[in-house]
Amino acid sequence: MAETGPTLTRRERKIATQQAILDAAITAFARQGYDGTNFRDITALSGAKRALILYYYKNKEALWKKSVQTVSDRFSHLMSQQLKEREHKLQDDSDEAQVRMALNAFLDTLEQVPEFGQILLREGTTEGPRLDWLAKHASPPSAIGFRLKNKELNRRINRTVLRDILSSTLISIITLAPLLDASLAAALRTKNAGINPLSKKR
User: Is the full-model pTM beyond 0.90?
Assistant: First the structure.
Protein backbone atom coordinates (compact mmCIF):
# COMPACT_ATOMS: atom_id res chain seq x y z
CA MET A 1 0.00 0.00 0.00
CA ALA A 2 1.46 3.36 -1.06
CA GLU A 3 2.16 5.88 1.66
CA THR A 4 0.14 9.03 1.58
CA GLY A 5 1.16 12.44 2.85
CA PRO A 6 -0.35 14.02 5.95
CA THR A 7 -4.00 14.96 5.65
CA LEU A 8 -4.53 18.71 5.45
CA THR A 9 -6.62 20.37 8.11
CA ARG A 10 -9.66 22.40 7.10
CA ARG A 11 -7.73 25.63 7.68
CA GLU A 12 -4.79 24.41 5.58
CA ARG A 13 -7.14 23.45 2.74
CA LYS A 14 -8.74 26.89 2.91
CA ILE A 15 -5.35 28.63 2.73
CA ALA A 16 -4.23 26.38 -0.14
CA THR A 17 -7.45 27.09 -2.07
CA GLN A 18 -7.14 30.85 -1.56
CA GLN A 19 -3.53 30.73 -2.74
CA ALA A 20 -4.43 28.68 -5.82
CA ILE A 21 -7.12 31.21 -6.73
CA LEU A 22 -4.73 34.12 -6.16
CA ASP A 23 -1.95 32.51 -8.22
CA ALA A 24 -4.41 31.84 -11.04
CA ALA A 25 -5.71 35.41 -10.92
CA ILE A 26 -2.19 36.84 -11.04
CA THR A 27 -1.41 34.74 -14.11
CA ALA A 28 -4.66 35.71 -15.83
CA PHE A 29 -4.42 39.45 -15.08
CA ALA A 30 -0.77 39.50 -16.19
CA ARG A 31 -1.54 37.72 -19.46
CA GLN A 32 -4.87 39.26 -20.38
CA GLY A 33 -5.34 42.40 -18.30
CA TYR A 34 -8.32 43.25 -16.12
CA ASP A 35 -10.86 43.62 -18.92
CA GLY A 36 -9.66 40.51 -20.73
CA THR A 37 -9.92 38.29 -17.66
CA ASN A 38 -13.12 36.60 -16.52
CA PHE A 39 -13.97 34.08 -13.83
CA ARG A 40 -13.87 31.21 -16.34
CA ASP A 41 -10.16 31.90 -16.85
CA ILE A 42 -9.47 31.85 -13.12
CA THR A 43 -11.59 28.74 -12.64
CA ALA A 44 -9.71 26.95 -15.43
CA LEU A 45 -6.34 27.83 -13.91
CA SER A 46 -7.19 27.24 -10.25
CA GLY A 47 -9.85 24.51 -10.38
CA ALA A 48 -12.02 26.58 -8.01
CA LYS A 49 -15.60 27.32 -8.95
CA ARG A 50 -16.84 30.88 -9.37
CA ALA A 51 -18.92 30.73 -6.17
CA LEU A 52 -15.84 29.80 -4.15
CA ILE A 53 -13.75 32.55 -5.77
CA LEU A 54 -16.43 35.09 -4.88
CA TYR A 55 -16.67 33.69 -1.34
CA TYR A 56 -13.00 34.43 -0.73
CA TYR A 57 -12.54 37.60 -2.79
CA LYS A 58 -16.04 39.20 -3.10
CA ASN A 59 -15.67 40.44 -6.69
CA LYS A 60 -13.30 40.76 -9.63
CA GLU A 61 -12.00 44.16 -8.55
CA ALA A 62 -11.14 42.94 -5.05
CA LEU A 63 -9.33 39.94 -6.55
CA TRP A 64 -7.45 42.21 -8.96
CA LYS A 65 -6.33 44.51 -6.14
CA LYS A 66 -5.21 41.58 -4.01
CA SER A 67 -3.32 40.15 -7.01
CA VAL A 68 -1.56 43.42 -7.77
CA GLN A 69 -0.70 44.02 -4.11
CA THR A 70 0.73 40.50 -3.83
CA VAL A 71 2.86 40.93 -6.95
CA SER A 72 3.99 44.39 -5.85
CA ASP A 73 4.98 43.13 -2.38
CA ARG A 74 6.83 40.21 -3.95
CA PHE A 75 8.66 42.59 -6.28
CA SER A 76 9.58 45.01 -3.49
CA HIS A 77 10.88 42.21 -1.27
CA LEU A 78 13.07 40.71 -4.00
CA MET A 79 14.26 44.17 -5.07
CA SER A 80 15.39 44.90 -1.52
CA GLN A 81 17.25 41.58 -1.44
CA GLN A 82 18.94 42.34 -4.77
CA LEU A 83 20.08 45.75 -3.55
CA LYS A 84 21.42 44.41 -0.25
CA GLU A 85 23.41 41.70 -2.01
CA ARG A 86 24.85 44.18 -4.52
CA GLU A 87 25.58 46.91 -1.97
CA HIS A 88 27.58 44.42 0.07
CA LYS A 89 29.78 43.59 -2.96
CA LEU A 90 30.00 47.12 -4.36
CA GLN A 91 33.58 48.41 -4.31
CA ASP A 92 33.03 51.60 -6.25
CA ASP A 93 30.84 54.07 -4.37
CA SER A 94 30.58 56.58 -7.22
CA ASP A 95 27.19 57.87 -8.30
CA GLU A 96 27.56 56.10 -11.63
CA ALA A 97 28.16 52.77 -9.90
CA GLN A 98 25.17 53.34 -7.60
CA VAL A 99 22.85 54.02 -10.54
CA ARG A 100 24.18 51.04 -12.49
CA MET A 101 23.70 48.80 -9.46
CA ALA A 102 20.11 49.94 -8.89
CA LEU A 103 19.13 49.55 -12.54
CA ASN A 104 20.67 46.08 -12.75
CA ALA A 105 18.89 45.06 -9.55
CA PHE A 106 15.62 46.37 -10.99
CA LEU A 107 16.09 44.38 -14.20
CA ASP A 108 16.98 41.18 -12.36
CA THR A 109 13.94 41.56 -10.12
CA LEU A 110 11.68 42.09 -13.15
CA GLU A 111 12.99 38.86 -14.61
CA GLN A 112 12.03 37.05 -11.39
CA VAL A 113 8.61 38.73 -11.11
CA PRO A 114 7.57 39.42 -14.72
CA GLU A 115 3.92 39.73 -13.67
CA PHE A 116 4.78 43.06 -12.03
CA GLY A 117 5.77 44.62 -15.33
CA GLN A 118 3.04 42.86 -17.28
CA ILE A 119 0.23 44.11 -15.04
CA LEU A 120 1.62 47.65 -14.91
CA LEU A 121 2.05 47.78 -18.67
CA ARG A 122 -1.50 46.52 -19.29
CA GLU A 123 -3.27 48.71 -16.76
CA GLY A 124 -0.99 51.74 -16.79
CA THR A 125 -1.97 53.00 -20.23
CA THR A 126 -5.58 53.96 -19.62
CA GLU A 127 -6.75 56.65 -17.24
CA GLY A 128 -9.34 55.59 -14.70
CA PRO A 129 -9.82 54.15 -11.20
CA ARG A 130 -7.41 51.24 -11.73
CA LEU A 131 -4.63 53.57 -12.90
CA ASP A 132 -5.23 55.81 -9.87
CA TRP A 133 -5.11 52.79 -7.58
CA LEU A 134 -1.88 51.55 -9.18
CA ALA A 135 -0.22 54.93 -8.73
CA LYS A 136 -0.99 54.84 -5.01
CA HIS A 137 -0.33 51.18 -4.25
CA ALA A 138 2.02 49.72 -6.86
CA SER A 139 3.89 52.59 -8.47
CA PRO A 140 7.09 51.30 -10.14
CA PRO A 141 9.20 54.39 -9.26
CA SER A 142 9.05 53.41 -5.60
CA ALA A 143 11.26 50.45 -6.51
CA ILE A 144 14.12 52.69 -7.59
CA GLY A 145 15.47 54.90 -4.82
CA PHE A 146 18.83 56.41 -5.56
CA ARG A 147 21.10 57.76 -2.84
CA LEU A 148 23.67 59.77 -4.74
CA LYS A 149 26.44 62.10 -3.58
CA ASN A 150 25.46 64.69 -6.17
CA LYS A 151 22.46 66.21 -4.39
CA GLU A 152 21.09 67.95 -7.46
CA LEU A 153 21.25 64.78 -9.55
CA ASN A 154 19.72 62.82 -6.68
CA ARG A 155 16.84 65.32 -6.51
CA ARG A 156 16.30 65.21 -10.27
CA ILE A 157 16.19 61.42 -10.38
CA ASN A 158 14.14 60.80 -7.26
CA ARG A 159 11.67 63.69 -7.42
CA THR A 160 11.01 64.17 -11.12
CA VAL A 161 9.71 62.25 -14.10
CA LEU A 162 13.23 60.93 -14.80
CA ARG A 163 12.66 58.24 -12.20
CA ASP A 164 9.43 57.24 -13.95
CA ILE A 165 11.17 57.16 -17.33
CA LEU A 166 13.93 54.89 -16.03
CA SER A 167 11.58 52.41 -14.41
CA SER A 168 9.04 52.48 -17.26
CA THR A 169 11.75 51.84 -19.85
CA LEU A 170 13.07 48.83 -17.96
CA ILE A 171 9.55 47.47 -17.45
CA SER A 172 8.86 47.81 -21.18
CA ILE A 173 12.09 46.07 -22.13
CA ILE A 174 11.37 43.06 -19.94
CA THR A 175 7.63 42.86 -20.60
CA LEU A 176 7.93 43.27 -24.35
CA ALA A 177 10.91 40.91 -24.55
CA PRO A 178 8.94 38.08 -26.25
CA LEU A 179 7.84 40.49 -28.99
CA LEU A 180 11.34 41.94 -29.42
CA ASP A 181 12.78 38.43 -29.66
CA ALA A 182 10.16 37.30 -32.20
CA SER A 183 10.63 40.45 -34.27
CA LEU A 184 14.40 40.07 -34.43
CA ALA A 185 14.08 36.34 -35.14
CA ALA A 186 11.74 37.10 -38.07
CA ALA A 187 14.23 39.61 -39.46
CA LEU A 188 17.07 37.10 -39.07
CA ARG A 189 14.87 34.23 -40.35
CA THR A 190 15.60 32.08 -37.32
CA LYS A 191 13.35 30.34 -34.78
CA ASN A 192 14.36 32.74 -32.00
CA ALA A 193 16.95 35.46 -31.53
CA GLY A 194 17.90 34.51 -27.97
CA ILE A 195 17.37 37.96 -26.51
CA ASN A 196 14.25 37.22 -24.47
CA PRO A 197 15.41 37.43 -20.80
CA LEU A 198 12.29 35.57 -19.68
CA SER A 199 12.95 32.49 -21.80
CA LYS A 200 13.97 29.23 -20.07
CA LYS A 201 17.31 29.27 -21.87
CA ARG A 202 18.16 32.80 -20.71
Answer: no
Please give the Cα distance from 25 to 64 (Å, whole number): 7
Mean pLDDT, range 16-33, rounded to an integer: 95
What was the pLDDT predicted at 41? 96
The answer for 180, left when phi > 0, alpha when psi is -120 to 50, beta otherwise, is alpha
Tell me the one-letter amino acid at 85: E
- CA angle 161-76-134, nearest 5°? 55
114-123 and 10-36 helices, crossing angle to 10°: 40
61, 47 Cβ separation under 8 angstroms: no
How far is residue 131 from each of residues 76, 96, 125, 159, 169, measured CA to CA in Å?
19, 32, 8, 20, 18
Residue 133: how many other CB atoms lie within 10 Å: 16
Distance CA 195, CA 197 (A): 6
